[in-house]
Design a protein that fits this description.
Elements (H helix, E strand, L loop, with lengths): L4 H24 L4 H8 L3 H9 L6 H11 L3 H15 L1
């Protein structure tokens, strides 16, 4: 089963927007990727892949990192929407 190319672009745009939102939130907290990973109980390389838009976060991931970033999953996804609007 192949995906519609338009949906692939949309998925890629969302992943990139999430990466930008994650990086912005992390830097606002003054955290390195390694510090965020250690404090959230996740792998450091995963944070980098997310920030580059090469991986897609799970709902569990959003809940795991939000407290470390001093935000909520809802606020974090709101940042994603902001980046998507900036791109269009």
């Amino acid at each position: 089963m192949s995906m519609d190319p338009a949906k692939i672009k949309t998925k890629a745009a969302i992943s990139k927007a999430f990466g930008n939102a994650l990086k912005e939130a992390r830097l606002n907290k003054g955290l390195s990727q390694e510090q965020l990973a250690l404090q959230s109980g996740i792998d450091r390389t995963y944070v980098g892949m997310l920030e580059r838009g090469t991986r897609h976060p799970s709902l569990a991931f959003l809940f795991a990192i939000s407290p470390t970033l001093g935000t909520t999953p809802v606020e974090l996804t709101g940042r994603v929407q902001k980046f998507l609007k900036m791109k269009s």
